Amino acid sequence: MILISFTLILFCFLSAKSINAECTTQNICECVYSDGSGYSFKNLLNPVNSSLKSYAGTDIQIFFNPCFDSKDLPTFPENTTNDCKNGFTLCVYDSLKNHSFVLGTTKDTKFKEEGDQIFMTFGTTSNISSTVLLQCTPNSKTSTLYAPKETNENNTNLILFSNNACIKQIKQIEAPGFFSTFFLIAFIVLLTYLIIGIIYNYFFVGARGYELLPNYDFWCKLWISVKLGFYFVKNGFRVVPTEDSYDAI
């Protein structure tokens, strides 16, 4: 009974279309679930090395490119400390401080889920972490990066409104066929049966040698039964006479 229950549970587990709770980074600007669905930002910007811009008040500018360490920046004043000049995924420029800060690059970009929301997270240091919430707008033709007024180099929680922020099928995943699943389950069940049977016979029955195999006599006779069944079918479903039968005499 336990073996049957185990088989049914295993069959349901392998046959079901499992979805990984984590959206795994496929490449720099894509994350994919185990069923092939996910998020892609390959078409967010054209050209790909440009950046999406936003403003938080009059002093803060934000530049964002999820797929490329962009250098697409406006011309800053000459006395500006420009940390973003060598490339960025997320950059904040504070005009009051005349300083641009790198808040993220492609190497520290990750996808994170909280409930039904998904974020892109960036962490350049242990005490600075920035996020971009992906907000799906399927009917929009343009993408908008929203920045709250309290945005600064230490507090950057943005929202990306875009049809690229909608979940879509990234790649096709072929589910295992019925027969491959069936034979895999049969193999696992047989292996489990042998392991449990051998352990039981060794410790509780005291069997040794070939007697460790569970139901050894049954399996020996099974081969003979299969052989007789084969000849029965081959003989046109007529009983094959044995040496001791009346027909043979």
From TrEMBL:
Subcellular location field: Preautophagosomal structure membrane
Superkingdom of the source species: Eukaryota
Membrane-spanning parts: 178-203
UniProt keywords, alphabetically: Membrane, Protein transport, Signal, Transmembrane, Transmembrane helix, Transport
Protein name: Autophagy-related protein 27
Keyword presence, rRNA processing: no
Protein's UniProt keywords contain Transmembrane: yes
UniProt topology in membrane: Single-pass type I membrane protein
A GO biological process held by the record: protein transport
